[in-house]
Design brief:
The chain has 211 residues and is an alpha/beta fold. The protein is built from 7 helices and 4 strands; from the N terminus they run αααβαβααββα.
């Protein structure tokens, strides 16, 4: 007979994800740590989600990213790739464009994350269209909250219009890209913003280690 889901979980459907993540990180993180992060991820996403149908799945994805970042911070053996974090206010436009474009251009040379200081309910309607025209993949992307683990794990943190809301961690390289906000503008303007970001991404990538 299987054990009942922990009452600490805000949704009993999270139990399966908690078990998967605990097994994956056995020997590194306790089941309690995994469950605590998963619960926190779910609650953070629930605060801003406009549609909650996939909230359980998204919470597991966010927790996966946070556990990977935490493992990196704690010195677990990793790939040695540069880690770049893009941060904007809502993680629905600029930072999503930048993350998808860098991941596309880098072809596995960089670990890329994005987050928002005040994440929006969903990605902007023209963002996916503008990315698809470049061949960049944004499947499964969603606005994510900025968490301490992801900031501390990053080698480079690139802010895009979020002001002083991004925490400063000593030893990280910080850049600010003064990129226009694509929220509410026509697709033609979104394409211009995308191309501006793409140029910056290409320049950034040229200065990163090849391994």
């Amino acid at each position: 007979m299987s054990a009942a889901p922990s009452p600490a979980l805000p949704d009993e459907r999270l139990a399966a994800g908690a078990a998967r993540l605990a097994t994956r990180h056995a020997g590194r993180f306790s089941a309690e740590t995994v469950q605590s992060l998963l619960t926190d991820s779910y609650r953070r996403l629930a605060e801003t989600a406009s549609v909650t149908t996939h909230l359980v799945v998204l919470a597991e994805r966010l927790t996966t990213e946070r556990l990977d970042a935490l493992a990196h911070v704690q010195g677990a053996p990793g790939s040695g790739l540069s880690r770049v974090l893009f941060v904007c206010s809502h993680n629905a436009g600029r930072s999503q464009l930048a993350a998808a474009l860098l991941e596309h251009r880098a072809a596995g040379r960089v670990t890329v994350s994005s987050a928002g200081t005040h994440p929006g309910p969903e990605i902007g309607p023209y963002i996916a269209q503008a990315l698809s025209e470049t061949g960049a993949d944004q499947a499964g992307a969603f606005p994510k909250p900025l968490t301490d683990e992801v900031v501390r794990a990053a080698d480079i943190v690139i802010t895009m219009g979020c002001g002083d809301a991004c925490p400063i961690v000593p030893g990280r390289r910080y850049l600010d890209w003064p990129v226009a906000d694509p929220d509410g503008v026509p697709i033609e303007v979104v394409r211009q913003i995308r191309d501006d970001i793409d140029t910056r991404v290409t320049d950034l990538l040229a200065g990163l280690p090849s391994t």
